[in-house]
Design brief:
Subunit structure (chains A, B, C): Homotrimer.
Oligomer: homotrimer
Organism (chains A, B, C): Azohydromonas caseinilytica
Shape of chain A: flat
CATH architecture of the largest domain in chain A: 3 Solenoid
Number of domains of chain A: 2
CATH topology of the largest domain in chain A: UDP N-Acetylglucosamine Acyltransferase, domain 1
GO molecular function (chains A, B, C): N-acyltransferase activity; UDP-3-O-[(3R)-3-hydroxyacyl]-glucosamine N-acyltransferase activity
Strand content of chain A: 25-35%
Largest interface: B-C, 72 and 73 residues
Pathway (chains A, B, C): Bacterial outer membrane biogenesis; LPS lipid A biosynthesis
Family (chains A, B, C): Belongs to the transferase hexapeptide repeat family. LpxD subfamily.
Structural class of chain A: alpha/beta
CATH class of the largest domain in chain A: Mainly Beta
Largest sheet of chain A: 11 strands, parallel
Amino acid sequence: MSVALSDIVAALGGELLGDASARIDAIAPLDGAGPSAISFLANPRYRSQLGSTRAGCVIVAPALRDEAAARGAALVTPDPYLYFARLTQWWAVRTRAALPAGVHPGAVVEEGAYIDPTARVEALAFVGAGAVVEAGTVVGAQSFVGRAARVGAGSRLAARVVLGERCTLGQRCIVHSGVVIGADGFGFAPDQGRWEKIEQLGAVRIGDDVEIGANTCIDRGALGDTVIEDGVKLDNLIQIAHNVHIGAHTAIAGCVAIAGSTRIGRHCTIAGASSVVGHIELVDHVHVSACTLVSRSIRQPGRYSGSFPFDDNASWEKNAATLRQLHALRERLKALEKKIS
Amino acid sequence: MSVALSDIVAALGGELLGDASARIDAIAPLDGAGPSAISFLANPRYRSQLGSTRAGCVIVAPALRDEAAARGAALVTPDPYLYFARLTQWWAVRTRAALPAGVHPGAVVEEGAYIDPTARVEALAFVGAGAVVEAGTVVGAQSFVGRAARVGAGSRLAARVVLGERCTLGQRCIVHSGVVIGADGFGFAPDQGRWEKIEQLGAVRIGDDVEIGANTCIDRGALGDTVIEDGVKLDNLIQIAHNVHIGAHTAIAGCVAIAGSTRIGRHCTIAGASSVVGHIELVDHVHVSACTLVSRSIRQPGRYSGSFPFDDNASWEKNAATLRQLHALRERLKALEKKIS
Amino acid sequence: MSVALSDIVAALGGELLGDASARIDAIAPLDGAGPSAISFLANPRYRSQLGSTRAGCVIVAPALRDEAAARGAALVTPDPYLYFARLTQWWAVRTRAALPAGVHPGAVVEEGAYIDPTARVEALAFVGAGAVVEAGTVVGAQSFVGRAARVGAGSRLAARVVLGERCTLGQRCIVHSGVVIGADGFGFAPDQGRWEKIEQLGAVRIGDDVEIGANTCIDRGALGDTVIEDGVKLDNLIQIAHNVHIGAHTAIAGCVAIAGSTRIGRHCTIAGASSVVGHIELVDHVHVSACTLVSRSIRQPGRYSGSFPFDDNASWEKNAATLRQLHALRERLKALEKKIS
């Protein structure tokens, strides 16, 4: 594919400096871009790369207008990173084959399922009785839509997704391969050393514009539902336990685990490999660093951390060994202070 | 669905106080229950909710009999939480559609597989030659039962489960979507900077009444088998490496990793996001807290922990920086003690 | 299956001491081996087991030749563990049924896909238009090979693998069930409290002789590709984010997370449950211990660690509480030092 810079500006706006007829055939980072690629400078830290990049056009903020224009074509916009995001979307629409609607003959659709005529149900997919697959959706190859589940308009399930019985997905959601929505939550009552299953009678309710990464799991609620609000973004291999509630526009990175009945606020971010214990609450605008165990509720917005600093193995061994005597050290210090004063 | 309180007592026992003909159409937590819901009070901490709940009936322990009866119908039983668990099971049986036995025409069953006539093999499932699918089982849509594998009587594979070649599942097990039983363990011999594969010749043997959560993996043994004993409950996204042995009635929460050849005792619990290194042993009745790395064998029952306490980011940064000098601090303290004494 | 010791030596070399016609029907660890099993002694720590094992033959290093021969048949070779690895491979070839090539009638192959006549495409698999499935490969049951993807010669996808659109796999790779290669990376631009998707336009490129464990995810790149070089071994439930680059012959254990754009060197090892933040670099021959967060680049080969030492819960509680005052303790120590000097 090749487009003129004028095509991009016509579609996405911005002020173009330089030759509007110059043609672009790729989007690339500053350091890898060739003369037919468009690139962007979002982080002022990389400003020096403006001098060395071979990109045919660079998307920049107004502050860099002159500097950028001096080296070649430039596209000036208040938020270059956001412009870049929209450019990738426009690019994807232009380069990806449009796939026809309809149910593949190798899919299995039970009687009583509703498939909108504008939806696409791919090969070897299964759609259960009472399920509703709304307009403009894609149910990917080998995906499973359980009985009475709902796939909202414009949503897209990649290959091999499970959307369990009675679970609902809002509009314009993207669900990646291997995701399991609506497996049973982990609930058991102890009975003389054995575990008695608590049947998980709730479901999962997912809002609009939610994206869910590969192999992530969202369990159904025990009694009520597990709820993911609008605009939430979940990365890969995340565990969302039963009856968790995640507020709108919260983003959670890979390999995070959220235990049961916990409530995460809106506009939070949780970095990779962190965990949140069950039955607690995080208010809006909480930001959790990587590899942190959130072991109690957080009532104030802000950033929270709790990872162990890594080191070369020998230093770590000495510090870790001392750590196990930390309380004793404190007592020794206290004794010393007493002695001296 | 709506039932009379008398129906519940007839099925599950307990002493009913109040109007036995009152009708119930939901099970709900105390704080969300309406007049037609039944709820339960298992934790004495929530006793105060007995005054405010609108539940039509509350399941309580004998100690709360009078208090509960004063506000409306009550169901008295020695262990309300266990009663609640059994109620959910009874409820599930009544509300879930019974699905007919038989092999879906869109499933693929190889010659030489045995499918009991009372088993149900759903659409797009695969059952390999020599596999045995016993009475009353369900092999969910798009699930895979490898050659010579066995699904024990009354077990249920959800949609899109993999039970590998020669692996066996006991009776009344529940395996959730995305589970992979019997992938190769991670075994390689170093050879001049390259890795030479050690073929994994063992299998996975799983006992009765085991439940396995979504996207959990249990690898086959290198030579012998990986073994999961009766009554074990595994949550989602757990990694069980080759030749691990997990004792009966142990429960493991989400995102736990157990490395190869480790032996976990009976009646243990391991909280979420913890890890256990390989080639060690944990005795019976060991309880591991969340986010703990168990780096050596545990010979005594009890609770073990090892997570880093989280904090606001500024406090954490100061403490984490100091932590890297911990050994030096100890030496300074020692020197000071020497000087003073 | 039963083989003579002479068969093994004929195939794999080594010096045989004892009766070459003795028959072997299993490979087993020293402590579990019976008289018809062959075992190996790779770690000198287990030397004492040589006296007690009932194995019919033991693979040993030259240093143990006499000791081993004194107790029965022995196979002498410079690297017993490597010999054992090759023996398992030879064993697997002899015991596993050879499966015929060809496309199962229940598979779905789109027009324009190329399937080599020596490849095997199993039941309910999907191969998209423009995909290339090379000679001697296996595409397992219910697996998905996206449009324009490539499966290199001799590679094997287990059941239920996803190889996404345009992603490529080298030769002789093994990909286990549940793996997702080529889901979208996690990329969003903030826009007034919402997240705007950055379409992931790159792909995943995987070298030769790579093995990928169950339910592991490797995301496609945002602009360029995510790259896994030759000989890399990945265990289960690993998250490899977009634009990560992993050097040849690096091995990564279960439940590790590598964040976006990070570059891992060659011949590295990363132990289980560790994480590596994004946009950093680890040089060749770096070894990371279990449960470690690598939070900055590592410029020197060596071993690095960062896990919190676990303890019985009471000790941990005291030390963890003190840890939160660590900075203050340091200040108190400093004050004391000042006072005294």
